[in-house]
Specification:
- The complex is a heterodimer of chains A (about 400) and B (about 170).
- Chain A is mostly helical and about 400 residues long.
- Chain A folds into 2 domains: about 70 residues; about 300 residues, no CATH class.
- In chain A, about 65% of the residues lie in helices and about 0% in strands.
- Chain A starts with a helix and ends in a 13-residue tail after the last helix.
- Chain B has about 170 residues and is mainly alpha-helical.
- Chain B is globular, with a radius of gyration of 21 Å.
- At the A-B interface, helix 6 and helix 7 of A face helix 2 and helix 3 of B.
C-alpha cells in the first residue's frame, strides 16, 4: 500500500531521473505545478455538473440531463460554449485593467495551492511561513475584484465591487483569527507541521482522531473558518457581490465569453483552496480518520480529496438551503459575532494549551468543561445581543409595491 | 546580480515611476500595488520570509484596498487638467536627492556592509515571535496602544459625521 500512497512522489522522482542535469530544477518546478493546474480545474468541471444536479434535486427538478450519461458531460458543452462566445468589452471600459482583472484573480487563486499538502510528501513548496503565504496571495483576490468592477464603467459592477471588498475585508479578520488558533496550538506556521500535529488518535482504542475539530476551540474555529471562507469566496448565502436579482451579476456583469469563464473558474478554485486549508487546519489534513488496518489501504491523497469533496458538498447544500443575507445583517454578523467569537477562541486555545499538563483524576473532564463553558457563554450572550437588536417591522417596498 | 533580482528590481522601479507619472489616479494606485509586490519579492530573495509576506498582507491586502476605496468614495477618477509638475518640483527634487545621498552614505558606512560575507543564520518566524514577545515587548505594546488610539479616533470622527443615521458602520 506504500507504493499506492507514494505513487505520485515516486513517479516524479522517476521522471526527474530522465531529465538532464542542468534542466532538473525547472523540470521539478514544472512537475510540481502541472498536476495542480490539471487536477483542480478538472475538479471544477465536475463540481459545476454536480452542483447543478444537486441543486436540481434540492429544488425538485432534474438538472442537466442531456449531454452524456445522466448529463455528466455538461461541463464539456459549457466549456466549448464559453470558448466560442464573442468577447464583448464595453466601449468606455478601461481595456487594460478590464483584461487583467480575471488574470489576477486566477493567478492569486492558483498561487495559494502551492503550500497545501495534498498527501504524504505531496506539496509544491515547503516554506516556514506557509499560512502567511496563503493569506498573502489571497490579498490579490480583493484587488482583482476591484479592478473588474472599476474598469467596467458600469454602476452595477462598481456596486458589486464595493460590496465585495467590504465583505472580504470584514470576513478576512475572523478567517485569519480562526486560522491563528491552530497556529497557537501547534506553534508553527508551516501547514506540514499542522498536519503532523493531528496524527493518531485518543480515547478507547484511539478511536477519536487527533484532529483539531474534535477539541472545543477547534470545533468553534472550524465553523468560524467555514463561514468566513464562504464569505471570502462569495458563496451563497454571502453572494451579495454578485446578487443576480439586485445588481445583475455584480463586478463581472460586463464580462463575457472566456473572461467570464475565467472568473467562474477562479472563484471555484478559490473555494477549493480555502476548503483545502480548512482540511489542513482542522480536519487532519491527509490523515485517515480511524486507526483500522483498512484505512491504511486507502492512500493519503484520496483521504484528502474525499474530505475536500465533503466540504464542497456542504457548500452546495448551503447554497440550496439558505437565502441571501442583507448587507447590514452581513456586516453585523461579521463584526458583532464572528470577530468576538474568534478572539475568545484564541483565549480558549491558550487555556487548552496550558491545562494540558494537568494530571489528576478527572482532569480531562474539567479541562473540557472549562473550555466549552468559556465558549458557550459568550456564544449565548452574543447571539442574544444580535437577535435583540433586530428591528422587525412591516416590509416597505419603494418601487415594486 | 542574478536574473530574479534584476526582474524584481526593474519591476519595482518601473511600477514606481508609473505610479507617480500616470494621469489616472486608479492606475497610479494599481501601479503602487505592483511596487509593493516588487519590494516584497526583494525581501523574499534576501531570505526575510516574514517581512516579505507581511509586506504583501499589509500593503497589498490592506493599504492598497484602502487607497482605492478612498479614491472611489471621495472623487471621480477623471483625469486632472493641470500639469503634473507644480512650483515645488525643484525643491522636492533637491530634498529627494539629499535623502537618497544620506541613505547611501549611511548604508555604505554601516557595520552591516562592513561585515564579511558570512551568511546570516536562517531566521524562522518562531524566532521573530519569541523576540517580539520577549525583548521587544515594550515597543510592540506601545505600537499596539497607538494603533488602538488611532482606531478609536477614526470611529469617533466617523460617528460625528454620520449624525446617528448610519451609527458607526
Amino acid at each position: 500500500m506504500q507504493q499506492l500512497d507514494q505513487i505520485f512522489v515516486t513517479l516524479k522522482a522517476w521522471a526527474l531521473g530522465h531529465v538532464p542535469e542542468p534542466l532538473q530544477v525547472p523540470a521539478s518546478i514544472v512537475m510540481s505545478i502541472a498536476p495542480i493546474m490539471l487536477v483542480f480545474p478538472g475538479i471544477f468541471a465536475l463540481t459545476t455538473v454536480a452542483e447543478r444536479k444537486l441543486l436540481g434535486r434540492i429544488q425538485n427538478r432534474l438538472g442537466p440531463n442531456r449531454v452524456g450519461p445522466f448529463g455528466f458531460l455538461q461541463w464539456a458543452a459549457d466549456g466549448l460554449k464559453t470558448i466560442t462566445k464573442e468577447d464583448v468589452v464595453p466601449r468606455n471600459a478601461d481595456k487594460v485593467v478590464h483584461f487583467l482583472a480575471p488574470v489576477v484573480l486566477l493567478v492569486s487563486a492558483l498561487l495559494a495551492y502551492s503550500v497545501i499538502p495534498f498527501g504524504r510528501n505531496m506539496y509544491a513548496i515547503d516554506i516556514d511561513a506557509g499560512i502567511l503565504f496563503f493569506f498573502a496571495v489571497g490579498a490579490g483576490t480583493e484587488l482583482a475584484v476591484f479592478m473588474a468592477g472599476w474598469s467596467s464603467r458600469n454602476k452595477y459592477a462598481l456596486l458589486g465591487a464595493m460590496r465585495a471588498i467590504a465583505q472580504m475585508i470584514s470576513y478576512e479578520l475572523p478567517l485569519l483569527l480562526a486560522a491563528l488558533a491552530v497556529v497557537m496550538a501547534t506553534g508553527s506556521l508551516n501547514p506540514n507541521d499542522m498536519v503532523a500535529a493531528q496524527e493518531g488518535g485518543r480515547g478507547w482504542g484511539a478511536i477519536v482522531p487527533n484532529w483539531f475539530v474534535f477539541t472545543p476551540w477547534g470545533f468553534v474555529g472550524c465553523i468560524l473558518f467555514l463561514i468566513a471562507a464562504a464569505a471570502e469566496s462569495n458563496r451563497s448565502p454571502f453572494d451579495l457581490p454578485e446578487a443576480e436579482s439586485e445588481i445583475i451579476a455584480g463586478y463581472f456583469v460586463e464580462y463575457s465569453g472566456m473572461k467570464f469563464a475565467t472568473f467562474f473558474l477562479a472563484e471555484y478554485l478559490g473555494l477549493f483552496v480555502i476548503s483545502s486549508m480548512c482540511v489542513v487546519l482542522f480536519l487532519g489534513g491527509w490523515h485517515a480518520p480511524f486507526p483500522f488496518f483498512w484505512c491504511d489501504w486507502i492512500p493519503s491523497w484520496a483521504w484528502f480529496l474525499s474530505k475536500l469533496a465533503c466540504i464542497v458538498l456542504l457548500y452546495i447544500w448551503m447554497r440550496g438551503t439558505l437565502p441571501r443575507l442583507r448587507i447590514d445583517q452581513l456586516m453585523n454578523f461579521a463584526w458583532k459575532f464572528m470577530l468576538p467569537m474568534a478572539l475568545i477562541n484564541l483565549v480558549v486555545v491558550a487555556v487548552w494549551k496550558y491545562t494540558r499538563p494537568w494530571d489528576y483524576f478527572g482532569a480531562e473532564l474539567v479541562r473540557w468543561l472549562l473550555c466549552v463553558g468559556l465558549l458557550a457563554l459568550p456564544y449565548l450572550l452574543l447571539g442574544r445581543n444580535l437577535l435583540s437588536n433586530r428591528k422587525w417591522g412591516p416590509r416597505t417596498y419603494r418601487y415594486a409595491s | 546580480m542574478d536574473a530574479p533580482f534584476l526582474i524584481a528590481a526593474v519591476l519595482t522601479l518601473l511600477s514606481a515611476i508609473a505610479a507617480i507619472s500616470l494621469r489616472n489616479v486608479v492606475h497610479c494606485a494599481l501601479c503602487l500595488t505592483l511596487t509593493f509586490l516588487g519590494l516584497a519579492t526583494l525581501y523574499l530573495q534576501l531570505g526575510a520570509q516574514f517581512v516579505g509576506l507581511t509586506q504583501i498582507v499589509v500593503n497589498v491586502g490592506a493599504v492598497a484596498i484602502v487607497i482605492v476605496f478612498a479614491i472611489l468614495l471621495t472623487r471621480s477618477s477623471d483625469n486632472p487638467g493641470e500639469s503634473r509638475f507644480n512650483k515645488g518640483a525643484i525643491w522636492a527634487g533637491l530634498i529627494c536627492a539629499a535623502v537618497f545621498a544620506t541613505l547611501v552614505v549611511a548604508i555604505n558606512t554601516s557595520y552591516v556592509s562592513m561585515k564579511s560575507g558570512a551568511p546570516a543564520p536562517p531566521l524562522t518566524v518562531e524566532k521573530i515571535g519569541h523576540e517580539l514577545m520577549g525583548r521587544y515587548v515594550l515597543p510592540l505594546e506601545a505600537i499596539a496602544l497607538l494603533l488602538t488610539a488611532a482606531l478609536i479616533g477614526a470611529v469617533i470622527i466617523a460617528m460625528k459625521e454620520s449624525n446617528e443615521k448610519g451609527g458607526g458602520q
